Amino acid sequence: MILANTVDEIKTEIFRKSIHFLIAIVPSLAIISTTGTLVLLVLGVILYSYAETLRLSGVVVPFISQVTFMAARKRDQGRFVLGPVTLGIGAMLALLLYPAPASSIAIYALAFGDGLASLIGKVFGKIRPLILMGKSIEGSLACFFAVFLITYRISKSISLSFFTAIAATLIEIFPLKDFDNIIMPIGVGFIVWFLQP
Question: Are the C-beta atoms of residues 136 and 122 closer than 8 Å to each other?
């Protein structure tokens, strides 16, 4: 029974993070039109929030209700699933607060740093020292290396990549629940904006 629950949790996490990774398309859309991308994100947040409110009232919204049900964790059952809202807001804030490439790195850190930390931590995480507040070393390392590689690919700066990856990993460690989707891009974007040459 415990193994079945763990397998179900891992399947849910894989599905959730597949959706989470989709936010990585935002920097490419922003190259075409930042304003258009912001409008799409706002409309997405509003549409999702409306559909989620209907779902909690017992109204099934085709596709959105099924996706939300499949992606919901145990802590989300019977509640408004906040993750997609904070994900959209986090990407919007990165675009509004920082110029490229800081905004792009911030959104990629949100998509892949935070996403891989959670996925690797759930599937492979064994070492969970108290200092990581329930998070695993494996997940934190996944976050660090994902953000380091993304930042280096964009900036070609080892020092910027290192400090950005450290900042992302420290933010990811805190038990912020769904609000890490907002704090991660704001924090990472600030570090890149502040430190980039």
Answer: no
Report the distance separating Cα 10 and Cα 190, nearest Å.
Answer: 32
Give the three-class secondary structure for 152. Answer: helix
Q: Domain segments of the chain: what residues?
A: 2-195
Tens digit of each residue's pLDDT, the chain (197 residues): 334 447 777 777 788 788 889 999 999 999 999 999 999 999 999 998 998 888 888 888 787 777 777 777 676 677 888 889 999 999 999 999 999 999 999 999 999 999 899 889 888 888 888 777 778 899 999 999 999 999 999 999 999 999 999 999 999 998 888 899 999 999 999 999 999 86
Q: CA-to-CA distance for 81 and 180, rounded, in angstroms?
A: 14
* Residue 144 tokens, joined: 């660090």
> What pTM was computed for the model?
0.88
